[in-house]
């Protein structure tokens, strides 16, 4: 049994803490905010997309990115900065924009997705699905252009969970799409996918962690830097003083990069700023029952409890959490156009979060250059989807067990 400090109180840190506790370790969880789950986990898209994974790095994306930046509804905005990390990350990302690299990453993420799905099922007795508004909605990806639709269907693998729908089928199965049925080419439906409130999940899991007999407590402080000696971490300097443990788990979202740097580790993560809108659903509204992703515009729609969650956009502007009025106005316009009667858009609550992404769109889980420092970072927009899976992998590695599949493409090395 080891004393372990988990750094980060979002969905990735909390799941890491739980599986380490269950593996027999004592755990302290450090979170700089007064409440868990209030960072990137707070108001994300809410989709649990275990079977539909689409790495951002893909062939043709660089050209698309240039086009997106000049479109009114463009999903990407890039602001060049005097920041070496921005440019080195971008170079690595471009190097991954190859068909073979995308296929390898997609295969690995599908393995991780299935592991995550099973791990979430294991949690049901601990955190009941209804306590965080979990619902098996299925996922429908709709396409506006014939080229994109044909490219997607040509890549499909046969499965009794996956169906190809015409534009008319999409509107028939999901009436919330009626207003844009004539603008769609078709869609691909994946059964078994789910939606849920990530923040509520964090809160409920934190309650169970707090009651665990091996849990040493929450420490609400700002992690500042690692203290090292040789190949080991000997302590963690925080805003409330130095804390020590046998081992450390870094799961602090974008803050992980600065903490890694304090120990001489360069972590290849960059903040992809995303926006979300949350609007109440009135009795007369026709909100989507199926989780919908608008492929070309990169906008997702999810009904979570009595609210509609819309998430979209990628801003590459460094660690800027400000709410850009123009981006929000653009998102609101296209939401009203796509699903005009789905929610009360006059009562929208906007939000922005920094999604820590790797160049190949796969998380990093496993060892670091230090013998007692473990990493669980870089989940990008799929932190909620992959958190339980990477937590189980992490717990196995800390125990000295082999992971359920090779970690090529998922490790720092």
TrEMBL record:
Residues 4-397 form the FAD dependent oxidoreductase domain. Keywords: Oxidoreductase. The keyword Metal-binding does not apply. It is an enzyme of class 1 (oxidoreductase). GO terms for molecular function: oxidoreductase activity. Pfam families: DAO (PF01266). Its EC number is 1.4.99.-. InterPro entries: FAD-dep_OxRdtase (IPR006076), FAD/NAD-bd_sf (IPR036188). SUPFAM superfamilies: FAD-linked reductases, C-terminal domain (SSF54373), FAD/NAD(P)-binding domain (SSF51905). Belongs to the DadA oxidoreductase family. This is D-amino acid dehydrogenase. It comes from Massilia aerilata.
């Amino acid at each position: 049994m080891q004393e372990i400090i988990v750094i980060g109180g979002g969905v990735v840190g909390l799941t890491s803490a739980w599986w380490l506790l269950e593996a027999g370790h004592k755990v302290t969880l450090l979170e700089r905010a007064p409440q868990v789950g209030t960072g990137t986990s707070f108001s994300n898209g809410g989709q649990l997309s275990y079977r539909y994974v689409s790495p951002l790095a893909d062939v043709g994306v660089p050209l698309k990115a240039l086009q997106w930046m000049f479109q009114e509804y463009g999903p990407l905005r890039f602001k060049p900065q005097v920041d070496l990390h921005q440019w080195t990350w971008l170079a690595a990302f471009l190097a991954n924009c190859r068909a073979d690299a995308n296929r390898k990453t997609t295969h690995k993420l599908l393995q991780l997705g299935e592991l995550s799905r099973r791990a979430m099922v294991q949690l049901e007795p601990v955190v009941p699905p209804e306590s965080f508004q979990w619902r098996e909605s299925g996922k429908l990806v709709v396409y506006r252009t014939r080229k994109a639709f044909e490219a997607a269907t040509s890549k499909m693998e046969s499965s009794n969970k996956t169906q190809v729908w015409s534009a008319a089928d999409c509107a028939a199965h999901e009436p919330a799409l009626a207003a844009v049925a004539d603008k769609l080419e078709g869609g691909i439906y994946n059964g078994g996918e789910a939606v849920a409130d990530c923040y509520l999940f964090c809160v409920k899991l934190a309650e169970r962690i707090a009651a665990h007999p091996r849990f040493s407590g929450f420490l609400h402080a700002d992690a500042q830097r690692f203290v090292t000696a040789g190949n080991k971490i000997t302590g963690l300097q925080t805003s409330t003083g130095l804390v020590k443990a046998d081992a450390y788990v870094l799961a602090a979202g974008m803050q992980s990069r600065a903490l890694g740097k304090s120990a001489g580790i360069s972590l290849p993560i960059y903040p992809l700023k995303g926006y979300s809108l949350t609007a109440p659903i009135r009795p007369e509204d026709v909100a989507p029952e199926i989780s919908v992703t608008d492929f070309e515009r990169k906008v997702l729609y999810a009904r979570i409890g009595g609210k509609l969650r819309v998430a979209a956009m990628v801003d590459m502007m460094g660690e800027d959490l400000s709410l850009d009025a123009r981006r929000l106005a653009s998102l609101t316009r296209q939401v009203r156009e796509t699903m005009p009667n789905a929610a009360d858009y006059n009562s929208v609550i906007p939000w922005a979060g920094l999604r820590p992404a790797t160049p190949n769109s796969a998380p990093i889980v496993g060892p670091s250059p230090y013998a007692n420092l473990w990493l669980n970072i870089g989940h990008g927009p799929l932190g909620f989807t992959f958190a339980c899976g990477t937590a189980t992998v992490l717990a196995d590695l800390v125990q000295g067990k082999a992971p359920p599949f090779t970690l090529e493409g998922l490790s720092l090395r």
